[in-house]
Amino acid sequence: xxxxxxxxxxxxxxxxxxxxxxxxxxxxxxxxxxxxxxxxxxxxxxxxxxxxxxxxxxxxxxxxxxxxxxxxxxxxxxxxxxxxxxxxxxxxxxxxxxxxxxxxxxxxxxxxxxxxxxxxxxxxxxxxxxxxxxxxxxxxxxxxxxxxxxxxxxxxxxxxxxxxxxxxx
Length: 169
Prior knowledge:
Blueprint: E1 9-14, E2 17-23, H1 29-40, E3 51-53, E4 57-60, E5 98-101, E6 114-117, E7 130-136, H2 138-141, E8 162-165
Antiparallel strand pairs: 1-2, 1-8, 2-7, 3-4, 4-6, 5-6, 5-7
Keywords: Isomerase, Rotamase
Protein name: Peptidyl-prolyl cis-trans isomerase
Catalytic activity: [protein]-peptidylproline (omega=180) = [protein]-peptidylproline (omega=0)
């Protein structure tokens, strides 16, 4: 299913090691294009995993408020300067390692925030856009610091150190 060509492989460096996500341009072309644009702009470098719920998912990608030096109370409320994206829902299921776009209640509000599933989340199927699948380093995702309580808000969160595409050095 996952097209793991270098130009469609997003590589996230975490404190524990590298995570490779095979992007799915055939499933979510607009979302994959957005991810590539934000990676090229280095927008994700240093961004926190602000919401991490054990047994569910790790959320990151707030390029507005999630960077070091930003207001941690606002992490998770922002996005990029680019317009929100229309939903690209598919039949691709949310399973362990699936990468999906976060959004508000409006299905057409995905922007820059995304999440990686720790476990299956069938209740998300057809409700959120799937844009990729972890192909390497899921053990590193498993080590991301969890948040407390039901909200999963993380104090002193782990961060994406750098994010790059596989066809860049």
